[in-house]
Amino acid sequence: MSVASFLAAEHPTAFSFEVLPPVRGKSIEQVFKTIDRLMPFNPAYINITTHRSEVVYRQIASGVFQRTAERTRPGTVAIAAALKGRYGIPTVPHVICSGFSRTELENVLIDLSYLDINDLLVLRGDRAKGESRYVAEADGHQHAIDLCRQVSEFNRGMMIDGSQHEPLGKEFSFGVAGYPEKHEEAMNIETDIEHLREKIEAGAQYVVTQMFFDNSRYFSFVERCRKAGISVPIIPGIKPLTSLTQQTLLPKTFHIDFPVELAEQFRRCKSNDDVKSLGIEWGIAQARELKQAGVPSIHFYSMNASASIEAIAKAVY
Ligand code: FAD
User: Fold this and answer.
1) What are the boundaries of each domain within the chain?
2) Nearest-atom index, ligand 1, CA of 122
3) Confidence band, pLDDT 50/70/90 cuts, at residue 86
């Protein structure tokens, strides 16, 4: 069963999370360790993020620099295959436009087809570090919807050179991103939801939200989406707080607000351990309310937070 079909079917609120590929040169063992401690809570699926290449200037001689593009966290496709084999549960690699040409994306889809990995999260991806706005690769995609269309055409056996083939394997089914507090570039929440609706029309079967700390933002986002004609499952994404630096880092990076009560408690934290305790307490309250509301799954952003997620899952599942 695809992740999309699972999410659409009746079931108790599931548990899922995302992992990041290790930094170049680091072993996959750390990813296994994170997952091993979360496996007792029966994750329904595991997402694996994708990170674009970044421009790096390396000094090759005195005063001479070479410009290269390097990916600090390669390996998404291989990790998706390794985790599926090791844990026997569906893996959902993220496929992003940012830093990829359409040909490179087609190559990724071919690799995933051959590996029989048929669940994707389709995204535009973050802009390059140091860029003030997103710039597509030559022959790349401007928006996630363009990649949704490429995947849907690939499902029909249509390659980017226009040639038509028998489909390579099972169809891909995929989700897309949604933003309860609006995407930073959107003119307003209405246009953002309109673009989300278009991604569903282009073949996306569910939505995973950006992290939020105020459940009322999620509930009103779902209500707005339903009014706009979006009927697919909308999976809440949450992240336990773990460090003092997140007080400014999370609002700046993800364009989200801390609710007043959380902000007050966060301000009183003196150490990362205080923040971790607060993150677990807040995460449990958030997850309990979401579960009570009958959401199809709660998706946890796991970076540096696996111990906190374990504590939340223990209390909630
Ligand atoms: P889009 O859907 O293209 O939207 C981007 C902006 O363009 C929005 O403001 C939207 O309103 C607008 N827009 C959309 N379509 C159109 C259109 N047709 N015409 C005009 N405007 C339009 N980033 C990574 O690099 N790697 C990851 O693995 C990753 N995983 C993520 C997982 C989740 C669950 C979420 C929520 C985000 C993730 N991101 C990841 C970050 C994401 O790539 C960024 O937020 C990115 O800036 C937007 O991606 P998107 O897919 O929402 O883009």
Assistant:
1) 3-235
2) 51
3) very high
